[in-house]
């Protein structure tokens, strides 16, 4: 059986397959101001232990696994409703990302929780730290399918295929791996770059 | 964003390094001589009898900051392997390429081209600063190196590439002492001699190359390449062939330039060398310290990278090149682009 796919890899994959391959296959990591804020956000979400308020128990940094779907990771926050049914809450420091990356990550948490708690989970929440807003995400069949597609995509990457091509679009501005990826740099030699040049003026 | 951090070099014999909060504390004879925040360091290099506490070794390992042990005279003995060392898929691709004569030849030719371009540029640059009598000799050598660049595309085997490189090296080092403006009766260079060096220039060049090779091996390790599997350098047990390959493009730019500058500024003088009976020469501890300090400062200087066009600290070029080579080996780039210094 394949190793479980990590929930963070799913999120990276949906955002950009190349970013996912750089981090999880090539072992590249780089921090920028956004990832640094993300670490702080998660540290805050993971601190504090368990608390009960209005009959809702809040679990933090809960290890998750789904044998059925081959997923594993850690949930920032899981709320247990008075009837014991879990709802995942993912903390995000930034704004909502394009391409449902955070929604897929959240839904993957729900798939794990459904298996671990034997419950049906119709929805979860994404909490945006900056706006202090919580938005509901419904776990539709379509979103559940997207989780499994992303899982298969991550597995294909880990099996060692070629690095996917750069996205080279709006996403790249948000990406901490811009320097390692070089999405807009030419893949082949650009004009004026000639290692075999025999010019004698110091240029090449 | 990878930033250039400092490498901590410790060559005072008997010093002790340990972790104190998030700092490296350096003690000599029981007294604190330095306190360096860990997040300013990208690695630690120690020479000879220097102790490091297990907690510090482990912390550096967890943060993927290698510890390198050299002998007191600067020969490599060991480097820590960290959890991020080595990407197995990249290594498999590297080994496959190294077993494919056509791919090996292509990479070797580009590495040699980078080396020769940078030797040519260094000679032309020295010619601009040289005394009038030396200028024609340096230009002539640059033309000879350039002639060998013209031969590279025709080379059909890696052995031919090595031959071309050797011919260029003879022209380059034949003119090397003409780049010097002071102490020329003392600083002379016969042929390249390694162990032992037979003249002061070889002694200091060998030392500079050892430090640079360590940086290049570290760069291979950081991007997950196997430092021992090279393309231009023959595979030989115990030799970091790929680190030596990566170093080729940087020898003239970093090491040779440092030696020329330090001698011309009289920061390295005959007093920094020990002439042994029998004709071998070594560089003194003070001389080594001068060289290390200069190289550390030089690594902070930014250059515009010839391929990416980005301002990059000179000390990160080895890392960038290792990354570009990894991209080529994993099929992300059709060719390996060598670093061409302007």
TrEMBL record, chain A:
Keywords associated with the record: Antiviral defense, Exonuclease, Hydrolase, Iron, Iron-sulfur, Manganese, Metal-binding, Nuclease
GO molecular function, one term: iron-sulfur cluster binding
Leading EC class: hydrolase
Domain DUF83: residue ranges: 8-181
Cofactor binding notes: Mg(2+) or Mn(2+) required for ssDNA cleavage activity.
Highest taxon listed in the record's lineage: Bacteria
Pfam families: Cas_Cas4
Keyword field contains Metal-binding: yes
Coiled coil: none
Record bears the keyword Nuclease: yes
Transmembrane stretches, start-end: none
GO biological-process terms attached to the record: defense response to virus
Required cofactor names: Mg(2+); Mn(2+); iron-sulfur cluster
Described purpose of this protein according to its UniProt entry: CRISPR (clustered regularly interspaced short palindromic repeat) is an adaptive immune system that provides protection against mobile genetic elements (viruses, transposable elements and conjugative plasmids). CRISPR clusters contain sequences complementary to antecedent mobile elements and target invading nucleic acids. CRISPR clusters are transcribed and processed into CRISPR RNA (crRNA).
NCBIfam families: cas4
Family of the protein in this entry: Belongs to the CRISPR-associated exonuclease Cas4 family.
Protein name as catalogued: CRISPR-associated exonuclease Cas4
Taxonomic lineage of the native organism: Bacteria, Thermotogati, Deinococcota, Deinococci, Deinococcales
From TrEMBL, chain B:
Any Pfam family matching the protein: Cas_Cas1
Claim: 4Fe-4S is one of the keywords in the record: no
Ligand binding (Mn(2+)): 165, 233, 248
GO biological process: one example: maintenance of CRISPR repeat elements
Enzyme class of the recorded protein, top EC level: hydrolase
InterPro entries listed in its UniProt record: Cas1, CRISPR-assoc_Cas1, CRISPR-assoc_Cas1_C, CRISPR-assoc_Cas1_DVULG, CRISPR-assoc_Cas1_N
Cofactor: Mg(2+); Mn(2+)
Coiled-coil residue windows: none
Keyword terms, alphabetized: Antiviral defense, DNA-binding, Endonuclease, Hydrolase, Magnesium, Manganese, Metal-binding, Nuclease
A GO molecular function held by the record: DNA endonuclease activity
EC number(s) recorded for this UniProt protein: 3.1.-.-
Function, as annotated: CRISPR (clustered regularly interspaced short palindromic repeat), is an adaptive immune system that provides protection against mobile genetic elements (viruses, transposable elements and conjugative plasmids). CRISPR clusters contain spacers, sequences complementary to antecedent mobile elements, and target invading nucleic acids. CRISPR clusters are transcribed and processed into CRISPR RNA (crRNA). Acts as a dsDNA endonuclease. Involved in the integration of spacer DNA into the CRISPR cassette.
Subunit structure: Homodimer, forms a heterotetramer with a Cas2 homodimer.
Entry's family note: Belongs to the CRISPR-associated endonuclease Cas1 family.
Protein's UniProt name: CRISPR-associated endonuclease Cas1
């Amino acid at each position: 059986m394949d190793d479980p796919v990590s929930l963070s890899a799913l999120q990276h994959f949906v955002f950009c397959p190349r970013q996912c391959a750089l981090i999880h296959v090539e072992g590249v990591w780089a921090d920028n101001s956004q990832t640094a804020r993300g670490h702080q956000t998660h540290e805050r979400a993971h601190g504090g232990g368990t608390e009960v308020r209005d009959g809702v128990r809040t679990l933090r940094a809960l290890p998750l696994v789904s044998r059925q779907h081959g997923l594993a990771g850690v949930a920032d926050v899981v709320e247990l409703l008075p009837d014991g049914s879990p709802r995942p809450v993912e903390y995000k420091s930034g704004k909502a990302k394009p391409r449902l990356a955070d929604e897929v990550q959240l839904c993957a948490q729900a798939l794990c929780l459904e298996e671990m708690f034997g419950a049906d989970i119709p929805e979860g929440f994404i909490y945006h730290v900056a706006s202090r807003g919580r938005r509901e995400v419904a776990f539709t069949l379509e979103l559940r399918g997207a989780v499994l597609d992303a899982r298969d995509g991550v597995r294909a990457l880990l099996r060692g295929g070629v690095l996917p091509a750069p996205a080279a679009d709006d996403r790249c501005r948000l990406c901490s791996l811009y320097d390692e990826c070089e999405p807009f740099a030419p893949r082949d030699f650009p004009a004026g770059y000639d290692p075999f040049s025999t010019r004698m003026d110091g240029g090449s | 964003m990878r930033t250039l951090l400092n490498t901590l070099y410790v060559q005072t014999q008997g010093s002790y390094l340990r972790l104190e909060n998030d700092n490296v504390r350096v003690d000599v004879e029981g007294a604190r001589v330095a306190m360096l925040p860990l997040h300013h360091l990208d690695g630690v290099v120690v020479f000879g009898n220097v102790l490091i506490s297990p907690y510090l070794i482990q912390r550096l390992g967890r943060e993927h900051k290698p510890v390198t042990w050299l002998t007191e005279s600067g020969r490599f003995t060991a480097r820590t392997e960290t959890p991020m060392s080595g990407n197995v898929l990249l290594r498999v691709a590297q080994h496959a390429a190294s077993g494919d004569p056509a791919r090996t030849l292509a990479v070797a030719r580009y590495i040699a081209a980078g080396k020769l371009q940078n030797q040519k540029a260094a000679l032309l640059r020295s010619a601009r600063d040289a005394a009038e009598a030396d200028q024609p000799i340096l230009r002539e050598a640059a033309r000879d190196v350039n002639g060998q660049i013209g031969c590279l595309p025709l080379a059909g085997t890696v052995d031919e590439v090595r031959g071309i490189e050797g011919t260029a090296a003879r022209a380059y080092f034949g003119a090397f002492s003409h780049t010097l403006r002071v102490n020329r009766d003392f600083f002379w260079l016969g042929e390249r001699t390694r162990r032992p060096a037979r003249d002061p220039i070889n002694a200091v060049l060998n030392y500079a190359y050892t430090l640079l090779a360590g940086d290049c091996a570290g760069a291979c390790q950081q991007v997950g390449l196997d430092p021992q599997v090279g393309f231009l350098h023959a595979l030989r047990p115990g030799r970091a062939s790929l680190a030596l390959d990566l170093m080729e493009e940087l020898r003239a730019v970093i090491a040779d330039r440092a030696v020329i500058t330090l001698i011309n500024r009289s920061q390295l003088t005959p007093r920094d060398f020990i002439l042994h009976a029998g004709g071998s020469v070594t560089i003194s501890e003070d001389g080594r310290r001068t060289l290390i300090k200069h190289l550390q400062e030089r690594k902070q200087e930014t250059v515009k990278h010839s391929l990416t066009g980005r301002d990059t600290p000179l000390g990160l070029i080895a890392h960038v090149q290792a990354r570009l080579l990894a991209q080529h080996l994993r099929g992300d780039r059709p060719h390996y682009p060598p670093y061409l210094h302007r």
